[in-house]
Amino acid sequence: MVLFVNGKFCKNPKLAKADDFFASGLNIPGNTNNRLGISAIVADVNKIPGLNTQGLSLVRLDYAPLGENPPHTHPRATEILALAEGTLYVGFVSSDEDGNRLFAKLLKPGNVYVFPFGLLHFQFNPNRTAPAVAFSALSSQSGGTITIAKSVFGSKPAINPDVLTKAFHLDRKTVELLLLKNA
Amino acid sequence: MVLFVNGKFCKNPKLAKADDFFASGLNIPGNTNNRLGISAIVADVNKIPGLNTQGLSLVRLDYAPLGENPPHTHPRATEILALAEGTLYVGFVSSDEDGNRLFAKLLKPGNVYVFPFGLLHFQFNPNRTAPAVAFSALSSQSGGTITIAKSVFGSKPAINPDVLTKAFHLDRKTVELLLLKNA
Amino acid sequence: MVLFVNGKFCKNPKLAKADDFFASGLNIPGNTNNRLGISAIVADVNKIPGLNTQGLSLVRLDYAPLGENPPHTHPRATEILALAEGTLYVGFVSSDEDGNRLFAKLLKPGNVYVFPFGLLHFQFNPNRTAPAVAFSALSSQSGGTITIAKSVFGSKPAINPDVLTKAFHLDRKTVELLLLKNA
Amino acid sequence: MVLFVNGKFCKNPKLAKADDFFASGLNIPGNTNNRLGISAIVADVNKIPGLNTQGLSLVRLDYAPLGENPPHTHPRATEILALAEGTLYVGFVSSDEDGNRLFAKLLKPGNVYVFPFGLLHFQFNPNRTAPAVAFSALSSQSGGTITIAKSVFGSKPAINPDVLTKAFHLDRKTVELLLLKNA
Amino acid sequence: MVLFVNGKFCKNPKLAKADDFFASGLNIPGNTNNRLGISAIVADVNKIPGLNTQGLSLVRLDYAPLGENPPHTHPRATEILALAEGTLYVGFVSSDEDGNRLFAKLLKPGNVYVFPFGLLHFQFNPNRTAPAVAFSALSSQSGGTITIAKSVFGSKPAINPDVLTKAFHLDRKTVELLLLKNA
Amino acid sequence: MVLFVNGKFCKNPKLAKADDFFASGLNIPGNTNNRLGISAIVADVNKIPGLNTQGLSLVRLDYAPLGENPPHTHPRATEILALAEGTLYVGFVSSDEDGNRLFAKLLKPGNVYVFPFGLLHFQFNPNRTAPAVAFSALSSQSGGTITIAKSVFGSKPAINPDVLTKAFHLDRKTVELLLLKNA
């Protein structure tokens, strides 16, 4: 029998020890040698059991030159990001009710930006030669990530192309290209 | 001075009357004479003041033949939908952590489907001649809607095309097409 | 060993499938051939495992001519009701602190009414020949129902008649009648 | 303009003083010279402004010989009661889903009993000569009270007698008696 | 396998009985024959299984003459206290952001005082000959207690004395005395 | 009239702009030229209006050689800390119920540590020559800080010395010293 409480096992508190509240490795640059030029090193409840029920997690984000964290949402968290190195063009888009307004900003080291609960957002390193490094906190032990390109055009199995054709106001060929590229 | 509590004014409870808990019009088909063939008639806190702090709202959804409610998320709500008339192909996609799996189903009248909190989902009427009608409840007085096509490709102002080109693994020309179509 | 999380087993998310988010049968009129002339077909977490932790459920309500959903409360939910067919006299009563005011309304198809969290409410079909049909959403995966007649006069075992005699300002004989009728 | 936050004004925290967290008078027996033989002296947010947002309140309950706190619910609170003097027959009834089971107990001084969130409950002093005194805490700054007799048979205006006749399985005359007695 | 839900086992609701909501003994003075002259008799979820998920617990506090409940916090609860007998000097201190202001009051029988969520507070019986008795409710099924003297100077193992020396602006010898006395 | 919602004014969402979600300066070392050798630069709702209702804030912590963030609690937040530079001895103490156990660890750059909700904790730079820098996230828009030395021995006005003498098991003279030093 497998049982999940908040998706995680609960430990007998009497058996908890310091290492249950500890993680390491956020000083080591992540591998950004991928198409998007992005790396996320996550310190959430999956790595730190003591975060269970504590509503918080941490992420180190590395961006290659021109690397990006593509448009995504966190279904269960607000995010606050602090830029440590480089420059970063960041933004979120408000909901349909607010007119899908873009709230964007070019960040320099020491700048902080908030991505409100559940809204679509992204980060992009506009520098052609220098990497960027940021640290983000999320208001959940495991906020989840919905990367739009993956969720819309890369789901398994794929969403019916007719749905996507109409949704994005495109011809069938372009949608098939999107599906192919993001599979 | 304008003050917002949960985004809404609170009324002196002593002055509340029956009409503050009432709305009408969910029996009248919405106008689906638009590109997507979709209409949403919303009964939320903006129409029913008595819903303030009550965590609930209702929507009537009309779908033209081949009409659709395109991929979107609700940043602050779970949704449960009941199909009243027609057929409806519905689905949601789990988060990146779960492998972006598509949970889809073809609904017939009287069928009910759940779109879990914050996840990307859609509804599509696959019938070429008959409309469809559904009723949805959301677990928020005002759950918000993030239509992906609008939020990613139709924000005001537009997200930097370089960001979108990389995010969707596309050439610049296709992205410009997407931006143009969804503006 | 039997373990309950929010009163329900939690499933390993990796094993979830589309049918865990699905239910059927809300298009079929319920059987109202009972003393009250009422039927409730519930789509809650007991029928849809995927509703666990999602804070929402749905109900189809059928009313025979002169049928009613008698005065009751939901200890863990707000309710929003939409009338689909017929007419319905609905109401809720505010708490003692507000003077037990009745907020009532005669609903026609397409009308929507809210029963605020935890308050006593009812629905009654005043039509002598036509049935009525409504759909309700509740802000809980399992909001619970406390039907007053059953809870006060039909508990097992019965509440001490002395308590009820005094509470309702009645003679012993009438209370015994109430106990007998609602047992 | 009148504005309510959680139904109460919020004070500038800098202006708070000790008296905002203080109340007096719970040592003085309440007046039980009424039909039910009950008195409730409440220390909630209406008396103690500092309770705002703190989710807690306190009540002193005095019971005349054969006095009772009649069947009622608290729409927004759990209650825990400690008997200080006398004897008290207490009970709550589980919801319809659990079969409306009565959980009752005869309390002696120093006994504690819990009335779970939103469930119907009562207290009755079975002693013909001695009063009883209890103290209760509620898990809300203002939990609300729905006294069943008042809410069902004493609302203003009255609920349609047809509704009540059917709900309680009674003849019209008995319902009119109930309405008259509890008006 | 041992599993904890909110730190407690959940029982199959169908097996619940009246005794799961019951505790006794709050009428018996606790033993205050200790250095602080204090006794706390707790009625929380560890004693009353039915409190699980109900967000409430109760405590009887006995104070010897000059006895005290030393400065402490409850990490998960607000507290409301009613003085039953004697006199009690009570107080809480606001946070650093509010200037660590002391909100203190001398209570007489029947007086009520609130200790807001998470703030440091204490109670002291200033009477040299008479005991005092109070009852407190906490807004948690198990609010936890952090007695400052124990947590800072009596932890197991001890906090590095250098940390404490600097924190309290003291010489090493005084800190060692504090550690020794509170071990 | 001054009104506070969660202690902060709510802005009309339509008027929000990117700068409402932005702060700067977390790249600049804080001034640790004080007795404790500590600096905290806070990015919370007081600096970033867009954090209102978002349940999150960020802090940069600078520690001089042998500097420390003295024992304290956050009444409304969990904290997760990442060490950026130097070494840091960190720890928290569990509640009385768990035996006041110390969970301590010596952190190196890239290490992460969690301080659970409401528990007493501290950080100390044991290095005699090198500073340390850390970043912490808190699960509240404004978690509050209760520095124990200030709250117990530095409140305004002071807590009655008799209370402290007994609480810390000390002679009057030592308590007066503590009060003097921490005033």
Protein described:
- The structure is a homohexamer of 183-residue chains.
- By secondary structure, chain A is an alpha+beta fold.
- Chain A folds into 2 domains: 24-144, Jelly Rolls (Sandwich); 146-183, no CATH class.
- Chain A has 3 helices and 11 strands; from the N terminus they run βββββββββββααα.
- Chain A has helices at residues 148-153, 161-167, 172-182, and strands spanning 22-23, 38-43, 57-63, 68-73, 79-85, 88-93, 102-107, 112-115, 120-124, 132-138, 146-147.
- A 5-stranded antiparallel β-sheet of chain A has the order 2-3-10-5-8, with no helix packed on it. Chain A has a 5-stranded antiparallel β-sheet with strand order 7-6-9-4-11.
- In chain A, a hairpin with an 8-residue loop joins strand 6 and strand 7 (102-107).
- The radius of gyration of chain A is 19 Å and the shape is globular.
- Chain A starts with 21 loop residues before the first strand and ends with a helix.
- Chains in contact: A-B, A-C, A-E, A-F, B-C, B-D, B-F, C-D, C-E, D-E, D-F, E-F.
- Chains A, B, C, D, E, F: It is found in: Secreted, Extracellular space, Apoplast.
- Chains A, B, C, D, E, F: This is Germin-like protein.
- Chains A, B, C, D, E, F: One of its GO terms (cellular component) is apoplast.
Structure described in brief:
The structure is a homohexamer of 183-residue chains. By secondary structure, chain A is of the alpha+beta class.
Low-pLDDT sequence parts of chain A = 1-7
Largest sheet: number of strands, sense, barrel closure of chain A:
5 strands, antiparallel
Number of distinct beta strands of chain A: 11
CATH architecture verdict of the largest domain in chain A: Sandwich
Largest interface, C-beta within 8 A: A-B, 61 and 61 residues
Determine and state the CATH class of the largest domain in chain A. Mainly Beta
| Number of domains as seen in the coordinates of chain A | 2
Strand order of the largest sheet of chain A: 2-3-10-5-8
CATH topology of the largest domain in chain A: Jelly Rolls
Please identify the structural class of chain A as seen in this structure: alpha+beta
Assembly of the depicted chains: homohexamer
InterPro entries (chains A, B, C, D, E, F): Cupin_1, Germin, Germin_Mn-BS, RmlC-like_jellyroll, RmlC_Cupin_sf
Protein name (chains A, B, C, D, E, F): Germin-like protein
GO molecular function (chains A, B, C, D, E, F): manganese ion binding
Main location (chains A, B, C, D, E, F): secreted
